[in-house]
Every structure is written in structure tokens, then in C-alpha cells.
Amino acid sequence: MQTQIMSFNIMEYMVWVIENTATEFFNGNKTAAYESLKNSGLYQIYMDTYETTHTLGQEYLIEEVREYFIVNGVEHVGR
Question: What does pTM read for this prediction?
């Protein structure tokens, strides 16, 4: 089994993704946001596409997560 090593930049980006998702969809609950991102596959998608997605703004991220959650039936608290 190969271990995936996460660079500091990717780790910092993923924390940003989790924090923004938690604030927007889970009343600040970072654990719930992390679990939903992991279970929905978005966490891996954002890690895999770091080189392009880390340049996008917060508004774009939130809209993309919202659309993905709706299309894939991911439950969230929302606003």
C-alpha cells in the first residue's frame, strides 16, 4: 500500500476548504464538514485538482460545493 504524502500547501488549502464548508453549510462544525467532504468524494477531488482549484475564490468554492451537495444528495445544515 502506497502512502500519500500531502504537501504543506495542499494541507493548508484543504483546511481552508473545510473551514469554508463548515461555515457555510454546517454552522461552523468542522468535523461535520470534513466527514461530508470525505464521504461525498469532494475532499479527494479538491486534493487531486489542487493545482487549479487553489486559485479559485471562496465564492466559487461555496457555489461548487453547494451544487455538488444538491446533485449528490449530501445532507447539510445550509443557510
Answer: 0.86
pLDDT tens for each residue of 27-69: 999 999 999 999 999 999 999 999 999 998 999 999 999 999 9
Where are the alpha helices (H) located in the chain, listed in sequence order? 8-25, 30-40, 42-48, 50-53, 58-71
Question: What b-and-e string marks burial along 40-51, b requiring 16 or more CB atoms within 10 Å of the CB?
Answer: bebbeebbeebe
End-to-end alpha carbon distance in the chain: 41
Cα 41-19-45 angle, rounded to 5 deg = 20
Spatial CA neighbour of 17 closest among 3, 4, 49, 72: 49
